[in-house]
Design goal:
alpha/beta; 2 domains; 419 residues; eight-stranded mixed beta sheet; 15 helices; Rossmann fold; five-stranded parallel beta sheet
Length: 419
């Protein structure tokens, strides 16, 4: 325990505050601040490398600025090799107890655990700390598995938590980070580069490509293959590539099975469904249900899939120009998810609406087009929205240089002016 405590001293902020805070993610930091000094467990969920650790350090810096005693802040990042011996909840509990005795801590302890899913039975200690009536703890955790967002959190923490989903950089964050104007040029560059913060430090395209390849391998191997004892890694990779090549397209599990079988990769519905579910849990991709606008019900048929970040398509595929319309769709999808909307693909009698986005008190219908190049395309995109009889906001996004304004109350917007 003495040895691991020395590592803890090295990576905590008892002598000096965090030095590497990175870009301040104000959108998330301001939301989280509202819940500081409450009993709720603060849960940050996001794909690997979206910046959760930076946000944790930014929260710690905020606490230090409020004059919280540095010794009362306990920080452990399970991605640091030195903590490999912290395997289960008991190891972590013993370390926290040792730390408090060693530093003779008095008063509330702020506990930060980064990548909590790497600790076996983590929920036992998180629950124990949050329910301890003899000592005062405030708990912050991060995770890279979407199961924490749903069933596991609801089951283990019984409503005593507030969760924050962390996304890659938004377009607004991208332009602020690079200190460039929000215009078409910067928007296209944002689509090409993606929103993973580490990419902005890498100057060469080849280096970025290597980084994305290594990150993907880490996610696939560590978060899926090792965790679920997957044997057919090649099949998992091919399923992910199929999704990458088909972002924004409606397809079913059977479509994937048939495609793989036609390419002499033998598989079945159950296996493909299971592997896609594993990919969803890593937050690499997101599944979007179809919504019957008239019947107001979720349809169980084909779905669409979008990437958490377009860099997995841009640096691992050669189809950027060909799929630019779908790239725009992906950006619009992520934007509204980040803002807390539920997002669906809309079905109407004569066609499909790209997105129905809604949250309490607000709903929007959205069409996305690469370009409104002629009257036929304009009619197709706008007529689809005209067929919806309610009065909620209706928007068409495109990459045209100039907006054509409003047609029958439907707004044509250029994304760099809105996102």
């Amino acid at each position: 325990m003495v040895e691991i405590f020395e590592i803890l001293k090295e990576y905590n902020f008892w002598q000096k505050g965090p030095e590497n805070l990175g870009y301040i993610r104000a959108h998330y930091l301001n939301k989280i601040k509202k819940y500081i000094d409450t009993d709720l467990i603060k849960v940050l969920i996001g794909q690997r490398r979206v910046g959760k650790s930076y946000i944790m350090r930014q929260i710690i810096q905020h606490l230090l600025a409020k004059k919280v005693n540095p010794g009362n802040i306990f920080y452990l990042n399970k991605e640091i090799v030195g903590y490999d011996s912290i395997v289960n909840y008991r190891d972590l509990y013993d370390l926290i107890e040792f730390y408090q005795k060693k530093l003779q801590i008095k008063g509330k302890v702020y506990v930060f655990i980064d990548e909590v899913q790497e600790i076996s039975d983590w929920e036992k200690i998180i629950n124990s700390l949050s329910q301890d009536y003899q000592k005062s703890y405030e708990v912050f955790i991060t995770g890279s598995n979407s199961k924490l967002l749903s069933g596991e959190l609801a089951t283990y923490l019984s409503g005593r938590y507030i969760d924050f989903e962390i996304f890659p950089f938004s377009f607004e964050e991208y332009t602020d980070y690079h200190q460039v104007d929000k215009d078409k040029v910067s928007f296209i560059n944002y689509i090409k580069k993606g929103g993973l913060p580490e990419l902005y430090k890498l100057k060469e395209e080849e280096t970025r490509s290597h980084y994305i390849t290594a990150l993907l391998n880490t996610i696939l191997l560590k978060d899926i293959v090792q965790r679920y004892k997957i044997k057919n890694i090649y099949l998992l990779e091919r399923i992910f590539k199929f999704i990458v090549d088909n972002i924004g397209n409606l397809f079913s599990i059977n479509n994937v099975v048939n495609y793989l079988n036609s390419n002499k990769i033998n598989t079945n519905f159950e296996t493909v469904s299971t592997y896609i579910n594993y990919l969803l849990q890593t937050l690499l991709v997101c599944e979007v249900d179809r919504y019957d606008i008239k019947g107001k019900s979720i349809l169980a048929s084909n779905k669409k899939y979008y990437l958490n970040d377009l860099s997995f398509r841009n640096y691992l595929s050669s189809s950027f120009d060909k799929g630019l319309g779908h790239h725009l769709e992906n950006i619009i999808f992520n934007h509204y998810k980040m803002l807390g909307y539920k997002v669906f693909v809309g079905k109407i009698a004569n066609g499909e609406v790209d997105f129905v986005v809604e949250k309490p008190g607000d709903k929007k219908y959205i069409q996305v087009a690469y370009s409104l190049a002629n009257e036929k395309i304009i009619q197709r995109e706008f007529d689809c929205l005209k067929n919806i009889s309610d009065s909620y906001e209706k928007i068409v996004f495109s990459l045209d240089d100039i907006s054509i304004g409003n047609i029958d109350g439907i707004k044509h917007l250029l994304p760099w002016n809105v996102l």
